[in-house]
Amino acid sequence: MARGELPRNLHRAFRGLRRPQCERATQSLRGSLCPAAPRCLSTTAPRPAEIVESQENFTAAPPIDFEQQGKGFTGKRLLKTLRIVPASPSYFSAKPTFTDDYISLLALLRRNATLPTIPKAEAPKVIWKTIDQYRVMTNEPVRNMRYHNMLHLLRRLNCIHPGLMPQEVRDAMLRYKKPSQPGDIKANPAVIDELGRAKGVGRRKTSSATAWVIEGEGEVLINGKSITSFFGRLHDRESAVWALKATERLDKYNVWGLVSGGGVTGQAEALTLAVAKALMVHEPALKPALRRAGCVTRDPRKVERKKPGHVKSRKMPTWVKR
Amino acid sequence: MPPPPASPWPLLQLRRVCRLSLDRPASLPVDTRACLFARPQTAKTACFSTSPARWANPSPKKKGLVAAPKRGTRTLNVKRGKRASGQSTARPPAVGERKAQRKRVVLSNNNALPVPGLVDLDKSNALSDDIRGHVMGIPDLAVDALRAVDAFKPTQGWRLFRRPATLIRTETARLAGLVRDVQAPAEGQARATVRRILTGDRLSGKSTLLLQGLAVAWLQGWVVVNLPEAKDLVNGHTDYAPLPGSRPAQYTQDTYTASLLSQMVAANSALFAATRVVTKPTLPVPLPATATLKQLAELGIASPEASWPVFVALWAELTHPGRPPVMLTLDGLSHIMRESDYLSADVKPIHSHDLTLVRHFVDHLSGKVPLPNGGIVLAATSTSNAPSSPALDFSVLLAKARARNAHPSHTPTWNPYRVVDQRAMECLANVDTLNVSGLSKEEARTIMEYYAQSGLLRAKVDEKLVAEKWSLAGMGNVGELERTSIRLV
């Protein structure tokens, strides 16, 4: 597009207007490293080329035809007759990308303002880019407030009725969405295999457990041992089959579990999760009951790491006088 | 005018030095300077040494040099009874009191409710199939006999109930069937000797099954002989002596044998008192003519050094034709399948099978010596107090494979690179096992109802509760069932 070429045109146009002190400053700054590329318009690092899909159609001025326009003029007088129009309307702001985006979104909304909308609560869930991500993308120090205003526009666009959402709005919004959206990743539905087994995997602390649940009489084998020989404490035994006990299914299913890693309690609670997940394959309607019993959510807590200068993760060394 | 008297101070010092040098041996160096400047009122012992004075008055600890208290710790010592010296003023328990406390067997609990309709075992119903799956009381006389042979263990839950009662489970019924078969063999056949090793998980009721077997046998009028802990035989806690004339050397345990004799007399008193000695034993102590078995045994009890010959004589009497069958049991089999803790005269460990009592039991278990009048030899394994005995483990695996007629490719084979206890392997070569597994749900329900009737389980015993406890107890492991439903540990 014309934007990429603009600096070159301008350079050419302004070559004669360069002020001497600017040149001196760049020379003194850059030294002898790259003396062939003097720059004085921009004070920031060069911006990588961006793909701007949804900019408003803004036409730059046609290239200057010196033969036609400059009849009878030469040198500085010729230049005085020229009027330069940049490709971006916000070119003369320090960094134009955000303003361009904002203006284009405003124009988009203006065009589509009459389309029917749905309430905000019913609009599809979208996770927009954070301001930091936007800053990195545009390489521009955008202010919080301004980005916030742009998000208002985006949310308003998102509220257009999904059935009537124009393609250009969809494409425009894509630029501001995070790469992964909620509901993108869908787990494969678990199945009961041909032998009637449902598999579930659970983790807790550093233990991980796999449980196969099958319809039966309430027999439990863990790593090939009976539950009493594997878990000495009654509390751990109850934890391991808690999903079945809380839903009163202990005498309806058999459990065959494999556990590894961690300690006894972690293994028992990893089994809780594994058995609950396998049970939900057999009876998906039990999910609310299992959630109430605390068998659905993985407990993310782990041992906090030790830090340098501390005795343990948070404990500081004993205070010593001198 | 006489000259003014000199100051008395240097004179005194000089005199002191002279006396010191007179008192001390000349070789001792005397620091005269220290003495010269020493004040007369300091310690009189030895003015050049400071240690006695320091001993007498140890210098007080400098204050203010202790570290500041840790943040979050209490500076006020509120722990009572924890003296700085760490010694309590209470008297330590007397010798043997702690062990007595540990080994005490309590068989009744007056706070538990008597169970209505509890039927006692007796001679007629003990062998019938009708009592299978029921809880049966153990009659008082049988309790006395079983207590005499130490069949009740402190780890079992007898102390929770009003009186001893036991569930006749599948394995008990099977054992009762063996008793019945021995007692009434088929036409024209002699009474058999049945030998079994009881195996099973921890707390699955192996020792209790021994007790049930002893109870059933005692009720049928059998001779019951129990070695309650194999560990006591081999852990080197009893006196031992080489058996004269034995080659290779065997060792008797006289005190233990004497106490075993007294247990036998107590448990089988009626039979022993009524039976007269018919063989002519040669004993180191005089035996009156027409003595009873009880008198014979009491000879060994009274003089432990004669206890082993008396035991041999008594066993010969018991195996004499026409006498009742014998129930011979032992708990903790793996202890006697290895070297014992005793040492021989040339300081080599004695193999357990060289101890005469162990030898006696092992010969009967292996089938080397049969019981002429029939009988049952039972050995229970233990999973909580068991030294590793690869030979026993392997033999049990082999016996189980044999029992299910496993294909030779599926029978276990001994790893030839492992060292094997050959004597243990030989004696266990053809002994069958009796596996004690978990209770069925019906049996679990029966015993839980018994708990509830005893007032120990305060819940409605229904399908749901039984299923839950059965699962949590590892598919009906009876000890775990008791722990989960009564003891709650």
Output the structural class of chain B: alpha/beta
Largest sheet of chain B: 5 strands, parallel
What integer value in Å does the Rg of chain B equal? 36 Å
> What is the count of helical runs of chain A?
13
Please give the number of β-strands of chain B.
11
Q: Which architecture name of the largest domain in chain A does CATH use?
A: 2-Layer Sandwich
By CATH reckoning, the class of the largest domain in chain A would read Alpha Beta
Q: What would you call the shape of chain B?
A: globular
Uncertain segments of chain A are: 1-6, 12-56
The number of distinct β-strands of chain A equals: 5
CATH topology of the largest domain in chain A: Ribosomal Protein S5, domain 2
GO molecular function (chain A): RNA binding; structural constituent of ribosome
Family (chain A): Belongs to the universal ribosomal protein uS9 family.
Protein name (chain A): Small ribosomal subunit protein uS9m
Biased composition (Basic residues) (chain A): 303-322
Overview of the structural elements:
The complex is a heterodimer of chains A (322) and B (489). Helix content of chain A is 38%, strand content 9%. Chain A is of the alpha+beta class. Chain A folds into three domains: 2-80, no CATH class; 97-174, no CATH class; 198-292, Ribosomal Protein S5, domain 2. Chain A has a five-stranded mixed β-sheet. In chain A, strand 3 (220-222) and strand 4 (225-226) form a beta hairpin. In chain A, helix 5 (97-112) packs parallel to helix 7 (144-158) and helix 10 (234-240) runs parallel beside helix 12. The N and C termini of chain A lie far apart (71 Å). The relative contact order of chain A is 0.08. Residues 1-6 and 12-56 of chain A have low confidence and may be disordered. Chain B is an alpha/beta fold and 489 residues long. Among the domains of chain B are: 191-436, no CATH class; 441-487, no CATH class. In chain B, 37% of the residues lie in helices and 10% in strands. Chain B contains 18 helices and eleven strands. Chain B has helices at residues 8-23, 32-37, 51-56, 97-103, 140-148, 170-183, 206-219, 230-234, 254-267, 269-274, 293-302, 307-318, 356-366, 390-403, 422-427, 441-453, 463-472, 478-487, and strands spanning 135-137, 165-167, 193-200, 223-227, 241-242, 251-252, 326-331, 339-343, 349-351, 375-380, 432-436. In chain B, the strands form four sheets. Chain B has a five-stranded parallel β-sheet with strand order 4-7-10-3-11, sandwiched between helices. A two-stranded antiparallel ribbon of chain B has the order 1-2. A two-stranded antiparallel ribbon of chain B has the order 5-6. The longest helix of chain B is centred in the N-terminal third of the chain and has 16 residues, at 8-23. In chain B, 36% of the residues are buried. Chains A and B meet through helix 9 and helix 10 of A and helix 17 and helix 18 of B. Chain A: Residues 299-322 are annotated as: Disordered.
